[in-house]
Each structure stands twice: as structure tokens, then as C-alpha cells.
Amino acid sequence: MKHLVSCLVTLAFIVPAMGQIAAPEPMSVVPAPHQIEWHKMEQYAFVHFTINTFTDKEWGYGDESPELFNPTDFDADALVMVVKDANLKGLILTAKHHDGFCLWPSQYTEHSIKNSPYKGGKGDIVGEVAAACRRHGIKFGIYLSPWDRNHPDYGTDAYLVYYRNQVRELLTNYGPVFEMWFDGANGGDGYYGGANEARWVESGYLYYDWPKVVDIIRELSPETVVWSSSLPDARWCGNERGVIDEHCWAMATPEELYSQGVDNLSLLRHGQENGTRWAPAEADVSIRPGWFYHDYEAPKTPEQLFDIYLTSVGRGGTLLLNLAPDRRGRIPDEDVASLVAWREMVDTAFNRDLAADAQFEASSSRGECFEAEAMRGEDDAYWATADGVTASDVTLKWDVPITAKYVVIEEHIALGQRVREFSIEAREDDSWREVAKGTTVGYKRILKLDGATTNELRIRFLDARGPLTIARIAVY
Ligand code: FUL
What we know:
The protein is α/β, with parallel strands linked by helices and 476 residues long. The chain has helices at residues 5-13, 33-41, 52-55, 76-85, 125-136, 157-174, 204-207, 210-220, 254-257, 264-270, 302-312, 333-349; strands spanning 43-47, 90-96, 139-144, 179-181, 188-190, 197-199, 225-227, 235-236, 251-252, 277-278, 281-286, 318-323, 359-362, 383-384, 392-411, 419-428, 431-438, 445-464, 469-475. The protein is globular, with a radius of gyration of 24 Å. The structure holds beta-L-fucopyranose (FUL).
């Protein structure tokens, strides 16, 4: 019985008690505890809001007057409640976008909210949203654009001092945060304190010297997942459509991303089976065509959002779904309606796990504490195969036929990502029909079936990097 305390002790400490079977050895690259917590969030919001909202732009030039920032009805609690009602678990706010305007009263620049009409210069959108997030149990995160088209020193060492000071200021005043988001845009034309010129930083990756920034984050907010082009804790999935590739490893080697001759888009999309860091894919996508609010654009439909859920959360990564407050500072009603209907669609589709009524059988098992039953996913238990066994079938049997639309498979990623190839078959009379197949699984994989009606489903794990370690199989 997997609920036995002894089993849980074995699972938690890897070292077995006397006579017990040891857990499989972890793979060489596994997630850190803060990355596992991040995976569990599955989906969270982006919020793009700044001067651009008032100038109708996507990228401000950097010469915009702070006077332009004047939301008439901003309410941080209302914003956070939209996020919460959509079942998004966190909120990452654009504290500063490429135009350099700061949504908090930074002591390092005058180009901020303190010189705007909002609350007579006493407002602090970053602080207000951070506090509302804490009030409502939503995790808070920060986007701080490295590229700054306002700052006179952009491109020099002096700007790096400014930038790191801001990282420190934000984490000290508003941390801890669950994620820091450093986009990849760097350099181009801009205002730059009146220079009005183009400034290109030679290899943005090297200029910003990310390890120094990461050191500040680790010091002030050690649980933060750092998202940046240098792949510290999480990576871009390679597009802004919300689509993680079907073949996707959580691991990648940062040094290779910038090596000459490397197809870096392919590396971001697929990860690397032998990558040296746990740097899983995050799918960032906006509910509207733009990242910022434009009154001529419309939000995605609930059906489109549902498809995005399947291609992001359903492919082993996380979904970062952008919302765009309007000039009032409110999420438009039509966007809220789409979000609410999307949540209902997800809740309905994944409402009742049919596997709860199934018998679980595996063609191979490591033994006590690692048996097929562990895949019901009720606790931290997982099914594992013996050392050297990298292929095995799991069969789910029902007394009365079920109609399956989705199969969900989750690896026990604390020991690393392993599955290389699998297929799913439904029993029809005396034969098996393949209803889905794939390569990688990772934290969570959702497979859409064609609505097979059957008494038996067989998940065939055909190849893996080590013994199989599967935390959960669910059927909807
Ligand atoms: C990109 C930026 O250039 C876009 O404006 C947006 O913020 C997107 C999420 O990241 O790098």
C-alpha cells in the first residue's frame, strides 16, 4: 500500500529503510525545489501596462512625458481578482518596458510614476499590485526590460549599475517574487536622454552580464525563477503563440544557445536531452494580438485559449497569458468574459478523472512502493521500473466502457525527465488501436484522443533515458 509511512519515507529520502527497494537514481539534471513549485503553478498572467497604453504603441521610443500615464480607474484588487477568477496562479507585471518608464517611484530616475498625474504622483502600481497579489493568494512576478530607450547611459557600464540598482530596489521593496522576466529585446533606436540615435549592444547576452544580475536575485529572493536569454531557470519556448513543441525536453545547455552555428530557435523549442541545466519552456502569449491595449483589437475566444492551454500546460511547460489593462487601468469586459468561459471549459473538460474507477496494471514494476497504483496521483508516490528497464506498458481497465477524450501523463520530474517515446492504444474487440503517440512527456502531457470508447487503455512507454518514473496517469 502506497500510503504506508515507510513508502513515503523511501520516496522522500531515496535511501530505503532495511529491506525496502531503493528509488531509482536521479538523472544528472533535475529541477531545483523552486522550479518544481513553479511547474506546479502551471499557468499565470502577464500584465502589460505602461505609457504605451496611453500612446497606443507596442514599443515606446523613450521620450514620452510621464504626464501621459493617467489611468482613471485603476484598482489593483480588481485586476488581481480577474487573474484569480481565471485560475491563473501568479501575475508578472511590466514594472518597466523598453521605453524606460517605471511603474514604481524608483529612486534612480525621474522617468517614473512619481512624475505622473496618477494619484498626484503618490501612486505606485508595482507596490499596489504586489500587495493585492499577497492579499488574494496570487504569486507576484516582475518584468524589467533590460533595453531602456529612455536612459542616457544605455549601452555603457553606467547603465548596468542603474539596471542592477533597480533589480535590487524592486526585490527589496516588493519581493520575494516567484519569477523575474528579462525579455530578449536589446538595442535599437531610441531617445536615450535626448541623443536620439541607434544603440546596439554587442551581444546583449554578454553586455548585461546576467550572472551578476542572477546573484542579486538569489541573494534577495532565492525562490525566484529567473527567466532570461541566458537560461538560468526557465526558457522561452521559441514563439509567442502559446505553443510549446510536442518534442520538448526541460533541459538545455546555456553556453550552446549562443554558440556559433547553433540553431538557437530549435534549441529553445526542443530543449536538449543531454542539456546541463533544468531550464523548462514557458509559453508567453497575449490574449489580444498586441501585448498592450489597443481599442481596435479583440481578445481571443475561449476556444482559442483552450487550445493554447493544451499546447502549453499540456506539453510539459507553463503558460504565461498576457492581459492588457485599458486606459482606465481595467481589463476590458470582453476579455474577462473570455477568461471566465475559458476557465469553465478547462474545468469541465478535466472535471472527473475516469481513471479513478479503473484498475491499473503495469507489465513491469520496481516493486513495493513503486507499483502501478501509485499513478493515481493522490500523493507524492510514483510508479517506477527496475534499473535497466526503460520500456513498459501500463494498462487501465474498466468494468463498463468509458469514452476518453484526454489522457494526462505526468513524470515524477524530481528525478529528472526520462520518457523518449510512448503511444496510447484503445482495446477494440480483440485488437488494439493506436489513439495517440508522442515522444517527450515531462511535468505534464495532455493527449487529445478522438473520443475512443473502450474498456481498456494501454499506455506503452517505448523508450526512456533510465528507469521509468511516472507520477500520474489520468483519463477524462
Ligand atoms: C518582447 C517585447 O519586445 C514585447 O514588447 C513584449 O514585452 C514581449 C513579452 O517580450 O521581448
